[in-house]
Amino acid sequence: MADVPVLTESPAQSGVLRRAWPHLRPHRGSIAVAVTLSLLATLSMTLLPPVVGWAIDQVEEGDGTGLYLAAAMFAALVTGRMVLLRTAELWLARAGERVVRTLRETAVARLASAPLRFLEAQRSGDLLRRTTSEIADLASFVRSDLPDLLAVAGYLVFTTTVLLFYSWQLTLVLVLVFLPPAVLAMRWFQRGARTAFAEEAAERATVAATYREGVEAQELLASRGAETEWARRFDRDNEKLHRAAFRSEIVVLRSSGVTLAQGVADAAILVLGGLLVIGGGMPVSTVAVFVLAMRQLFESANQLTALIGQLQTSRVGLARLLDLLDTTARVDTGSAGGGQAEIGERGTLHADALHYSYVDGVWVLRDVSCDFPAGSRSALVGPTGSGKTTLAKLLAGLYEPDGGQVRFAGVPLADIPPGELRKRIMLIPQRVHVVTGTVRENLRLVPSSPDDERLSWALGELGLLPWIEGLADGLDTEVSATGDTLSAGERQLIGLVRAALVDPAVLILDEATADVDPVTAERIETALDRLRADRSLIVIAHRQSTIDRLPHAVRLHEGRTARSEPEPSRP
Ligand SMILES: Nc1ncnc2c1ncn2[C@@H]1O[C@H](COP(=O)(O)OP(=O)(O)OP(=O)(O)O)[C@@H](O)[C@H]1O
């Protein structure tokens, strides 16, 4: 089995910003404007205590004009700050949304072009979570927490400058009384937060993946009576998440040490400042400015603790998203094809000595060789588990073989760009994918987005107009993605119409085994008969009537071609 990279549950968070920089670089202009505006807003807020101090001085000197001036300045600073802050938030939200949009688009594009084998190796809920809710969390961090984080960082720097300017002695006392216990408490919190939050995110992803898998397999679980087994597994994962979330909460409690240190520092400064004023060594205004600025500093420190928690969660989310982008970039390489070779519109599909395994050492296909000349019509038959679906996926270029090669018109599939490949070889799986919407919208899910006229043409060609007319609202009939409204056979009819619209050189149909009523089966067979004659048709056939209609057969038995010679045509 070729090495298929699997996404890491808790990827390393070190250097996460450096790794994210290539995605941020295109938006550096708006980020710089947003940061500058935000820092200016913070600066105006930091100037408020000095203005209050100045007002106190004016009162003490009995200068009414000075007092009015101070009040006007106070009002101007508050208004200016509000305008600057809102503008900064808007810029930041805009820059952040752009970054997140780029990340989301890159993730979706990489997933869309990732080999099927890679997608199947991941837990589906995990991929979904990384590309939806974790990106949404990141967006909300950028919109709401990042502006606060910038403001807090600004306050810490500017307010410390104000404190130093007014009294370096009091600042020294503040630093000695407050900083050591506060820093210790913060480090204690951070040490725990890193692992606790990462574990919580990983457990949350596991619960989402288990839940999604359970919902997808509901029918199977119910039919096997295995719901309790699944519920037990879900309970176990849920319990782990519960414990991880509780551990995170305990870690958050560690940050209370900072509040305690603040109370002690407040009391110390008030007593010392008061004594200095009584002794005539310091004006009242200085103590007032100091106490106000100190409050601002503490509020920022409190906010910082909460924000660091958010920052930690976002770092984990960002690391998981970058892990997805890096891993998909790695698996993506080479799958785009050289694009140099001339590829014919029609040609022989040739499989040469194919080997394939899902699990190391267990070959599902061994030395399989077969030819499907242009315009040939073949059945692919064999007992359950003999490897028919796997061979079909290799023939369609959805899996890369572990050994051997598939060529179309002489060109290895690996050298054909994916877009070109899809136009030439198309696989209709047993369970055709439908999306929530109308039948028309589902039929139009092909690269050319055909109009109604072309849809009618395709339906007419395949003899499927009576089927559409028989639906409740014709082409406007609503179908749900869970497919309750369409049978497996009808979904395959949708697949066949899409195929007629794409007009591939090779059409591979993995015939639905269950739920095909005789009328739909007849419709599928008629549609297959009416597909253009120069197209090769390969049908993984389960029904004898289908096998009888096809002039050639490739038989698989335990992963080997039992007989790849064309069978004599049947009447
Ligand atoms: N994604 C997978 N991971 C691991 N093993 C797989 C996977 N898909 C198929 N297999 C195994 O590979 C073997 C061949 O499966 P495949 O679906 O190709 O057979 P098949 O002939 O199409 O069977 P059926 O007629 O029942 O659809 C089986 O043993 C199956 O269990």
TrEMBL record:
Compartments, as annotated in UniProt: Cell membrane
Annotated transmembrane regions: 31-55, 67-84, 149-166, 172-189, 269-294
Domain of life: Bacteria
Gene Ontology MF, one: ATP binding
Ranges of residues in domain ABC transporter: 349-571
Pfam families listed in its UniProt record: ABC_membrane, ABC_tran
Cellular-component GO terms for this entry: plasma membrane
Keywords: ATP-binding, Membrane, Nucleotide-binding, Transmembrane, Transmembrane helix
Its membrane topology: Multi-pass membrane protein
InterPro entries named among the record's database cross-references: AAA+_ATPase, ABC1_TM_dom, ABC1_TM_sf, ABC_transporter-like_ATP-bd, ABC_transporter-like_CS, P-loop_NTPase, Type_1_exporter
Domain ABC transmembrane type-1 positions: 32-313
Name assigned to this protein: ABC transporter
